[in-house]
From TrEMBL:
Pfam families: EHN. GO terms for biological process: epoxide metabolic process. The lineage of its organism: Eukaryota, Metazoa, Ecdysozoa, Arthropoda, Hexapoda. This is Juvenile hormone epoxide hydrolase. One of its GO terms (molecular function) is epoxide hydrolase activity. SUPFAM superfamilies: alpha/beta-Hydrolases. The gene is JHEH. Belongs to the peptidase S33 family.
Length: 244
């Protein structure tokens, strides 16, 4: 894999020169890309990075026709310390790598606490070493079922879930579909969109104080600034939704 990557880096397509004086306004500046490719191909320490990425135990198991890749870290604890199962779900454009610094903090015994976590960190379908689906229709609820079945296969009938970005969607789906299994759900990306919330949001554009505290109103309004941000920064989202 590394050899193939290096060969690709050394034989890139020709880059069109950037327009004068535009920087990154019309896309990535190709002058910068050339330097990055050279560093990646010639100086980057792949051996060191491979060792780092393999520092935690990794496994694959087949669930509902997909080979699912996951990290599993089981802590060694002293008597009287509870081990709680916790599923960590990454988002886009992320991977299990984003949890590497948090893993030691969650699996290490801490004075004053009588519990630590056993961590199961799967790669989403189509990410890392988890298979991508071969048919359409695999969304958040279906992924929630797969990850719930993964936890059951590992012996955890009840467990905690944490997720951010698309992991938040998966985690919320798990908590909604399987409330008897999920002991607790934590997310760093909370969202709730219903007909009522949408109407309240629009109503707040005219009467913000009825919807949100005055000191927080500038985080939601005016709506025009939010739409401008979507038009400017969410082109990738529209492309992935319509022309993936």
């Amino acid at each position: 894999m590394v050899t193939d990557l290096r060969q690709r880096l050394k034989n890139p397509r020709s880059f069109a020169p950037p327009l004068e004086g535009v920087g990154f306004e019309y896309g990535f500046n190709t002058k910068i890309i050339k330097g990055w490719l050279s560093y990646w191909a010639e100086k980057y320490n792949f051996v060191e990075r491979e060792k780092f990425l393999n520092k935690y135990p990794q496994f694959t198991t087949n669930i509902q026709g997909l080979d699912v890749h996951f990290i599993r870290v089981t802590p060694q604890v002293s008597a009287g310390v509870k081990v709680l199962p916790l599923l960590l779900v990454h988002g886009w454009p992320g991977s299990v790598r984003e949890f590497y610094e948090a893993i030691p903090l969650l699996t290490r015994q801490t004075p004053g606490y009588d519990f630590v976590f056993e961590l199961i960190v799967p790669s989403l379908p189509g990410y890392g070493y988890t298979d991508a689906p071969v048919r359409s229709g695999l969304g958040l609820p279906q992924t929630a079922v797969i990850f719930r079945n993964l936890m059951h296969r590992l012996g955890h009938k009840k467990f905690y879930v944490q997720g951010g970005d698309w992991g938040a969607g998966v985690g919320a789906s798990m908590a909604t579909l399987f409330p008897e299994d999920i002991l607790g759900y934590h997310s760093n990306m909370i969202f709730a969109q219903t007909k009522c919330s949408t109407l309240m949001y629009i109503f707040g554009a005219y009467f913000p104080s009825f919807v949100v505290e005055s000191k927080l109103a500038d985080r939601m309004y005016p709506i025009s600034s939010w739409f401008a941000y979507i038009l400017e920064e969410f082109g990738y989202f529209h492309l992935q939704a319509t022309k993936p």
